Amino acid sequence: MRFVLVSAITAVAVWLVTLLPLDIAVEGGDGGTWARIGVFLLVGAVMAAANLLIKPIVDVLSLPIKILTLGLFALVTAWFMLWLTAWLTTLVPWAELTIGAFWETLLAALLISLITAILTAVVPGASKR
């Protein structure tokens, strides 16, 4: 149940970032409002699954670089998770997350991480406690 809640929170964060003038777009869901919501939920679920399964491995492997950069490499890790989500959604024929240039996407990844962290802290049942 927590994964579904975190997926929905991540979907809201992705939706909010796509409203900004960054080079992030979610394509698909041309059938109406509910189809569009389903596309965002799919992208949120893919991103939540990537953060749940792959991010711990990437964090352990990048620990020496994070220590050298005093934690700033965590931004690159967040960008990599966004890029991985964009790549994974290209495998689905009816939903796709497209990203653009590195710096704009890095800012988008930072904003998605911040919005997700804030909403996870606010929504009851979403935190790990």
TrEMBL record:
InterPro entries: Phage_holin_4_2 (IPR007165). Keywords: Membrane, Transmembrane, Transmembrane helix. It comes from the Bacteria. Signal peptide: none annotated. The chain crosses the membrane at residues 35-54, 66-89, 101-123. Pfam families: Phage_holin_4_2 (PF04020). This is Phage holin family protein. It comes from Demequina litoralis.
